[in-house]
């Protein structure tokens, strides 16, 4: 028991690694996650719209892309994209971060595309018919009416995907990082290997929980609000139509 506590709960080692984790480690992880989520959302929205096209030659590439990047392990995708970009010997590419963001965006785009597609398909078809009756084109109906409603319905799933992106950012160390570029997992891993103790990795896990637990509660809150909806004020103030004497019978 003492060996277990020493190996995982060495507070001296945790205190030593926390400053690095909370400064550039946390910052680098958030940069990777936010940038990948934003670019992945753009890719996903394009995939969703193209995947719902009536033209098969547009749907087929979107389907292949989605199956490919959802089927490959995240570590393998990062390695393949990284090796492919670095082998091109791009002169201005001095940091692995753009490559990591590209790889994570390609992966997250496949998942976000399916999320958007399900949200768009959940919108009642009558919305599109009403838009056409008003003289809107198919593109205008999607952009102005259908897509905004679909995106609102999938907000909980989008936040869940962002949590997954935060955790996948730990795989960026495959591309090789200098000291100032290390994200949360790499910092904890390096300190654990240096000290021969797993307490730095425990501190890393606490930092991930610091990011993901509030987001998880945010998902639950958004989901509850979407399911329950807001109670109409008129209904709350509406007087009862039942006679009080009858209610006592």
Please describe the topology of this protein.
Blueprint lengths: L1 H7 L2 H41 L4 H16 L2 H14 L9 H26 L2 H9 L4 H16 L1 H14 L15 H12 L3 H30 L4 H5 L6 H5 L1
Characterize the structure shown.
- This protein starts with a helix and ends with a helix.
- It has a single domain (2-228), classed as MetI-like fold (Orthogonal Bundle).
- With 249 residues, the chain is mainly α.
- The protein has helices at residues 2-8, 11-51, 56-71, 74-87, 97-122, 125-133, 138-153, 155-168, 184-195, 199-228, 233-237, 244-248.
- The protein is built from twelve helices and no strands.
- InterPro entries: AA_ABC_transptr_permease_3TM, ArtM/GltK/GlnP/TcyL/YhdX-like, MetI-like, MetI-like_sf.
Brief descriptors of the model:
249 residues, MetI-like fold, 12 helices, globular
